[in-house]
Amino acid sequence: MSTFSEIQASDLFNTMATEPLLLVDVRNDDEVARGVIEGAIHIPLALLPLKYESLPKSDNIVFYCHSGIRSAHAAAFASSKGSKNVYNLAGGVLAWAKAGYPFVAKDEGKKK
After folding, report:
1. What is the CATH number of the domain that holds 92?
2. φ, ψ of residue 88 in degrees (nearest 5)
3. Residue scoring higher pLDDT (99 or 3)
4. Has 65 been annotated as catalytic?
5. How far apart are alpha carbons 55 and 43 in whole angstroms?
6. Number of domains composing the chain
7. What digits encode the pLDDT tens for the residues 25-79?
8. CA–CA distance, 71 with 25 (Å, rounded to integer)
9. Which residues cross the membrane (predicted)?
10. Order of strands across the sheet with 61-64?
11. Of 65, 75, 86, 95, which is the active-site residue?
12. 22, 36, 84, 90: which could join 58 in a potential S-S bond, CB 3.0 to 4.6 Å?
């Protein structure tokens, strides 16, 4: 059974400052062009099954998208592959922006 947890924007923001985690943006290229959460790796959801094994190993992995729906699919996929401590950003970048947290240009995030 695949399981993952939801993480709220405020909890993610605080966790990013204190714990190592792998942040994966599963939005499409045109969405990512508007900005990403700092430190995120961009892998469109459609490519995740092809690129999953090449992801850096991490104790905590957080997926996000625009509203949290596609990233929930990504989190379920990662969990089904045996990853532990998998999270989905509840509300996606919409919730992140509403909370007032910053975005950076795609080039300032991590590339994969």
Report:
1. 3.40.250.10
2. -120, 130
3. 99
4. yes
5. 10
6. 1
7. 999 999 999 999 999 999 999 999 999 999 988 889 999 999 999 999 999 999 9
8. 8
9. none
10. 5-7, 86-89, 61-64, 22-25, 41-42
11. 65
12. 22
